[in-house]
Amino acid sequence: MVILFGVMVMKNEEKTFEIKKTFSILIVCWLIIIGAFMMWTINNEKGSVYIYATNEARAGFEKDLLYRYWSTIHGGTYVPVTEHTPPNPYLNHITERDILTPSGRKLTLVNPAYMTRQVHELGEKLYGMKGHITSLNPIRSENKPDDWEVESLKSFENGTIESLAIKIFEGAEYLRLMRPLIVEKSCLKCHAKQGYVEGNIRGGISISVPLKSYKAVSIKNIKNLVIIFGVIALLGMVGLFWVGLLMNRKELDRCIAEQALKEATDISRDNMINQHVTTSRCLDALARGNSVKCSTNHSNGSSNFFRNNRSAAVVPSDRFV
Question: What is the dihedral of CA 253, 259, 260, 265, to 10 degrees?
C-alpha cells in the first residue's frame, strides 16, 4: 500500500511539473505578445506626433493660400495706416497705393504678400506656429530664405511639390513644411518687373509647427498605454495561473481516483485467488478421504463459501469403506 502510494505521488509530481512547465511557457508567450503589441502601439503613438504636426502644417499652408487668393482676386485690401501697418515701400510703383476716405482717413494698400507676413507674425504670437513667405529672388530682404528653405525652393524647380523635415529651429524642435507658390496672372501686378511670367515658381511658403506640445500629449498617452497594457498582462498571468491550478487539482483528483480503482481491483483479484486456492485445498482434502472442515485461518470469504455448501461437502461414510 505504501509503495503504491509512493508511485502515485511520483506520477502526480511528474504531471504537476509538466503542467507548470506548460503554463510557464504560456505565460512567457503571453508577456511577449503583450510586450510586442505595447511597443507597436507606443511606436504608433510616437509617430502620430509627426502625423498630427504635418496635418497642422498642411492645413496652415492651405489656409494661407485661401486668404491670399481672396486678397489676390480683389487686387489687395485697403486698411488704415497704423504703426503696425505702414505703407508698403515695395508698392511705390502703384498709383493708388495710398488713398484718403471722404472723412480724411488715410488708407494703404496691403497686397497678398504683405497680408501673409502679418498673419504669420500674428499666428506665431498667438499659437507658436511660424510661417515664412520667401523666394530665391525676394523683393524684400527680410524674406530671404534660410538654408533649408533654399534647398526646398531648388527642389521645387526640379518638380518636387512638397518639402518636409524635422529641424531644430531657433533652439526648438519643429516640423517644417514648404510648398511652392505658382505665378498667376493677378500676381504680375507686383511681380512682373522681376521677370516672372504666368506659371513660374515664384517662391514658397514654409510652415514650422512646434513639436513640444504634441510630444507632451504623446508622453502622457504613452504612460497611460503602459498602465493599460500592464493591467492586461497581469490579468492574463493571473488567469493562466488560476487555470493551471485547476488543471493541477483535477490531475491530482484523477490520480487519486485511478489509484483507488487500482487498489479495489487488486483486492478483488486477491480475494478471488484466495478463494480459489482455499476451494482447491478443501476439495483435495475431501478427495483424500479426510473429512475436515475448512481451516479458520482461511479468508472469511472461503469460510462462508463452505458454510453455505456444507451439505455438499459431507460425504456418507460407507463410501470410504
Answer: 150
- Taking a C-beta distance cutoff of 8 angstroms, is the pair 187, 196 a contact? yes
Q: pTM for the full model?
A: 0.66
Q: What is the pLDDT of residue 177?
A: 97
Strand 172-182 relative to strand 77-80, pairing: unpaired
Question: The C-alpha cell of 159 is what?
Answer: 518638380
Is residue 160 within a helix (H) or strand (E), and if so which, with residue range?
A: none
51-211: CATH topology is Beta-Lactamase (3.30.450)
The pLDDT of residue 255? 72
- Determine the Cα–Cα distance for residues 55 and 45; give it in Å rounded to an integer: 15
Of 18 and 142, which is predicted with more confidence? 142
Q: What angle do CA 139, 205, 122 make, to 5 degrees?
A: 90
Q: Report the pLDDT averaged over residues 114-140.
A: 90
Q: How far is CA 176 from CA 148, 162, 205, 238, 313, in A?
A: 9, 11, 11, 48, 115
Q: Of 114, 116, 112, nearest to 72 (Cα)? A: 112
Q: What is the mean pLDDT of residues 241-267?
A: 75
Centroid of chain to Cα 143: 44
The CA distance from 207 to 50, in Å, is 14
| Ranges of each domain in the chain | 2-22+220-320, 51-211
pLDDT band at 269 (very low <50, low <70, confident <90, very high): confident
